[in-house]
Amino acid sequence: MSGRKDVSLLLVLCLLLVVASSRHHVSALSIEKTTSVTGVIDGDTFDTSSLGRIRLADINAPEEGEAGYEDATRFLESLIENKEVYVDVDDLGTTSHDRIICVVYARHNATHITNVNKAMVDSSHAELWDHKDNEFEPAKWTLFNYYPGNTPGPDQDYRTILLVLILLTIVAFLVAETHRRR
Ligand SMILES: [Ca+2]
Ligand SMILES: [Ca+2]
Hints:
Layout: H1 2-21, E1 33-42, E2 45-48, E3 53-56, E4 59-60, H2 69-80, E5 84-89, E6 95-96, E7 99-107, E8 112-115, H3 116-122, E9 127-128, E10 144-146, H4 154-181
Helix pairs in contact: 1-4
The structure holds calcium ion (2 copies).
């Protein structure tokens, strides 16, 4: 009887663990490409290794010669220069002077990426300008977004190992109880 109780308890623990493991937020991000930044032109435009020149969607930074141009350019450089970026290309296909219109993300840490468009606006280096002919809605942007790297972190490995151990323990208990009853 106590053996069956133990098994029930373990099953409950196991279920709780599975629920805890799957509690990752389902990301609403739509990242279609990754590319490397080869040069920053100004606070809203930069060049990439594989996608050509990108114009950050729905924001506007000062042009060369305008007040704030240097600061905005340097700030964008600090976010993305020589880095890999994650790119959401406008599904509606808008362009501006042959530059593709995108929302761009840069890695913030192992689990989160920064919305570069929003970072430029939040830091007052660019102004918001919500063009309605593209897919993007700046009102829905958040600065940091859950997007873990490709390789599973130690946290995920640990949970998987624990889950397997608990399952093995349950099987061992069931086998032991079956033998005891014979
Ligand atoms: Ca898209
Ligand atoms: Ca828009």
